[in-house]
Every structure is written in structure tokens, then in C-alpha cells.
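Annotated sample (chain length 534).
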Amino acid sequence: MNRKNRLYFFFSLISLMIFIIALTSPMDETLLLPSVSPDISSINLPLADPTYLLWETSWGGSNLDFAQDVWADQYYIYVCGTLDADTTNPKLILARYSEWGGGYQDWNVTWTIGMGVYGNAVWSNSYFIYTAGTSSDNLVLIKWDSEGNQIWNTTWYLGGNYGVAHSVWGIENEIYLSGVYSHDLLLIKWDDYGSQIWNRTWGGGNWEEGIDVWGINNEIYTCGSTSSYGSGLNDTLIVKWDSDGNQLWNRSWGTPYEEYYTSMFGFDTSLYFCGNIWNETDLTTDMLIMKWDSDGNELWYQIWSLPEEDKAYSIWANEFYVFVCGTTLGREAEYEKVVLAKYSYNGILVETSYPKWNDDYHYIPKSIFAYNNYLYVCGGYNGSAEISGDYDLYLLKFYSYSTPPAPYFTPIEPNPSLNGTYYLNWQYFPESEGYHLYRDIHPILDISGRIPYKILTSNSLIETGMEEGTYFYVVTCIVKGIESEISNPRVVLVDLPDPPDNKVPGYNIFLIIIIPSLALFIIYKNKIKGRKTN
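Output written by the structure step:
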């Protein structure tokens, strides 16, 4: 073998040895994992339990029929409105729908006197139903049983003055009716037998109107508008009364332009109002949502607005959430479309939904009510896609969570983790005050008596330095200090690489091989030179 071939053989042998060492050397498996955290903020999380339509129903004849108010309990939904509103003989209508019937109407009854009656309001204690309406000469209050049989009716004579019964509310065996009489806010108290106990009016030299009434214990609240008092052309108005009809305080609120309330609802000592406010910049009307306490202190207000005309019609609230129904001409709508806005108790906009947006029809929502996690919205529906003309009564049922929501827990990544580091992420709720994260080496089926592993204000966490094993996680959401149900569970496996067992690392073997090889090559080369010299 000549010198050239020997050199070729020698270097080929060294290359083969290096290749074998590279294949058999232990590898640092952590190099396979990302060196930086992924951008978990860009993950598009699905919204757990958004507001969505469950069913809808409509009913009416050939004339103008409109639903004005809705009330619901565990079993039934009651709707009050007007049939034949565009004729000389309008009739108050009360209809009952079954909760489990997918919008099936059990029965309906109508009531009229003289020149007709417009039905405007309904309230129920689950045993009896009370409806309020207006005729040309009287305000009307009717008591029904749960099967639609009239128990009694009573009227309040207007004496030739203008008057409208807008709302009705009950506390134990006492019924309160709110509206307008002449040009003043009106509040009437009746007993459970239809006898008037007292009536009160409130106003100044201009126009005042009572639009809604709500009460708890011995406190009664009416809301509406005033143009006699306040700071503008027309301002919002709240008047608080005791059960004897004594005014305790009143509040007006507004800008130099025009504002008015259209609805109110309360929970405990919290009072929620919706209405409309003039937008001087866009020369349109926006939705106004406000919260006051029972002492007449303003807590917050929010304005919901799209570039076109927006109107708020009705509001409902519980301990955690506030729901407002209205209409908008925004989003390039050809005519008014239904809007549902959901706020937290502290005024954070949680969600806005646009049911029936793709229908080429005209929906006007007049009232909203909720029971458990279900919303009911009623109003008038024009199937001909024309703003004027024939309307029918409609009722929509929605699902929307009304208690602190259980977050959606996204899959843990990477899984398995080969270096003890992984990333947790769950659904963000704008109304949340924080999240409780729970971890265990066993499945977590119940958190009763457990202490959270982490209390967080963000909706993500990076776990590092975790030992080998299997870990189970759930998370909860905190709203107003109340903890939600647990999320869907997630599990992650930490599978660390085997230790090197004191083996010589691959790069050291490489040095051990290559250095002696080079030395041998130099010795060999010197021997060749020596032979030539000799």
C-alpha cells in the first residue's frame, strides 16, 4: 500500500469513528424544546357559554299586535301586550308559554272596555299574574290566576287628562303601578283585592313621566324623565318612596341635551337603569346604562354606541350581571336590529350579541326578563321587512350565564414535557376579579375544602422545574368574591430524560479520539520522512 492510499485509509477510519461516536453519544433532549415561551396571548380561545338563541315564537293576526312586557318563573313565561293596536278597539292580551315547550303557547286571554285597552305591563308572584293597561279614560289593573282566569279588575279614572300605565310591580300583597298623569309622574298603590290605598304625583311646570317601578321591602323606586328639573332639555329621573307614599329623595342626571330612562331593575341595594342619551357629536341617540345605590349615590354609568341610532328599551339584573335589550342602526343595518348587551355588576361590558341580525325583518324588543341562565325578550315583529304595517307579538328565549362562569381550560403545551416546563392557559373573562388554580397528582373532581395552588389575576401560567410525574389541573373564575364551578380538567405528563449515568459525553470522546489520531498521524509522517533521509 503506497503512502497516498495509507493516508486515505487512515482519515476514512477516523471519520467513521467520529460518525459512530456521534450516533451513540447521549443527547440533551431539552434542546428539542422551545427556548422561549410561546405567545399564548395570540391563542384564539372559544368563548364558554356565550349568549345564544334557544327558540323563538310569534303570534298575531292581520292588524298591529305588539308584546310590551314579559315575566318568567320556573315553569312559565307570561307576555302582556296589545292586539289590534291600530284599530278603534285595541285589546289587552295576556299569553302564557311553557318553559319546556320550546315556545308553545298554552293559552291567551284578551280584555277590553269602552274604546279599547292597550296592555303595557305584567308582574307575577308565580301564583297570580297582574297586568296593567291604558284605555282612553282609565288606567287598568287586572289580577289573573295562573290558568288565565280573571279574579278582579280595577280602574283609575283619568278625568279627561292624559295618562298611561307603564309598569307594575308587587311586594307581598301590595301592587304598585307607575306611569304618567297629565304631565306628572304617577305612582299608585293597590292592595291585593284591587282597592286603591294611595296615589302620588310628582312634577313641576313641564313634563315628567314615570316609566318603570321596582321595589324591595318597604322601599319603592320609580324612574323616568323630567324636563322641569335637572341640567338640560330633558334629564333622567329617579324618585324613592316609602310604602306609605312619602318621597324619600329624588335624583336627576343629564347633560345640556336630552336623556331619559326607559327601564329599571334592582338587586338588593343596587339599582340599574337603562335609557337613551343624545350624542351631540354624531347627532344620534346612544344607549345609557347606569347604576345607583339605594341612598341615591351614582356608582357608574356606561354608554353603548355604534355610529348610527341606538336605543335601550329594557334592563334586568341580578347579583352579578346586567342585561340590556335595545336596537341599533349601526353595522350598516337597513333598519333597527335587536341588540343584547351584557355588563358585569361593576360596569364592565362582558358581551354584545346581535340576534336575528341576518333576518330581513324588523324586530323591536320592548322587554327583557331572566330566570336562572335564561333570558326572555318580547316585542313586535314585522315579517314583511317593512317598518310600518302589520306586526306580530314575538318571544325569544336565550341562554346566557348569569353566575360566575367556569373558564374553558385549553390543552397544556408541551405535553408531555421533557424538561419540566409547560404552559397553562384558560379563558379570559373581562369581569373576573381573579382565578383560582388547583393542582394535584390525582384527578380533581371537587374543590370543596381545597386551598388553591395559585391565586392569579391573569389567565395564564408557566410552570418550571417540575419533577417527573403526572399533574392534574382545574381552574375557577372569581366574580364579586364568588367562585365559579370548576373548569374542564387538564392533565400533563412530565417525562424527564434518563440521567447520563456518568458516561463520558460525546464531545469528550470526540476529543479523546481525534487528538491521539492526530498525534499518530504526525508520528507516522515523521517516520516516513526519516526513511527517505536514510
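Annotation: The first helix runs from residue 3 to 24.
Annotation: The helical segments are 3-24, 506-533.
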